[in-house]
Amino acid sequence: MTLPPDDPASAKGAPTANRSIAMACSFNRREDTGKKEWILPSHDPVKLLPDIDKAILAIPQRPLQDRLLEDDFVAVPLTPAQLKHHRRWRVKERSRLHQYRLHLETLMQLNDGRYHLSLYARAFLHHLQWCCQEPYERRDLALPEPLARQVSQRFQASLESLTQELTSPAFKRRVKESETLAKSRASSLRTWMRAAFRQAPYLLWVPIQLGYRNPHYADLAQTLKDRQTFLKNRRGNPLFNYLVGYVGKLHYFPGKGLVHDMIFLYDARYVQEGASLLQAFAKR
């Protein structure tokens, strides 16, 4: 979050008692004129993160008794010509192993896209990611009994090591530092908004998304450079006249890749044409 460095910004003046924000329409860049605007899919894996974090937080509270093969696997019925010692065991659908593998699939997908995961999710990935890697990546995993028993025992050991990390003083200290940083950022944003209202008692709020035609764009360094190019040379550009400031956050969406969500705040005493502003941003 920042005030535009190319434009003069003053925080002088007392805050007015009559404050208001007008909101312009959001702008989504189209791939071409013949296609619909991009809309976030309803199966967005980001929406699963709160429940996944809750499941990870509950792990240290669950008993860690020695696991049996039947806790994680169920025997596949033998065919008439199949010998008993050739029996295969399939991952049980309601087992912890199956549920955690589903969580891992979501976390691995978001992690590959550089999504910011919680410390709990990262620790979960570190200890259990092997469950979804070769040779165990199949959703309907079925293994010979010796290998299935080995997986169950390794899963038990991974849960124990994960629990040990989550309950360690060092990990709890890192979580506290992360929460303190998040509160500090929220406080900075509130301070920034108060300063914006002191500069202009009426604000026009213009939200836009800056994305790419490439549906899975993931070049982090280039997208930061592109955003800086978009914002540079504001002095003397009529598009940025009466711009009070802007805030922005970089997001990763599985269906779109890297996207900049940005909010531009204008002095609404002089600028009220939100629709035409959005068209001007689209051209830029």
TrEMBL record:
Name by which UniProt lists this protein: Uncharacterized protein
The organism of origin for this protein: Vreelandella aquamarina
Taxon lineage: Bacteria, Pseudomonadati, Pseudomonadota, Gammaproteobacteria, Oceanospirillales
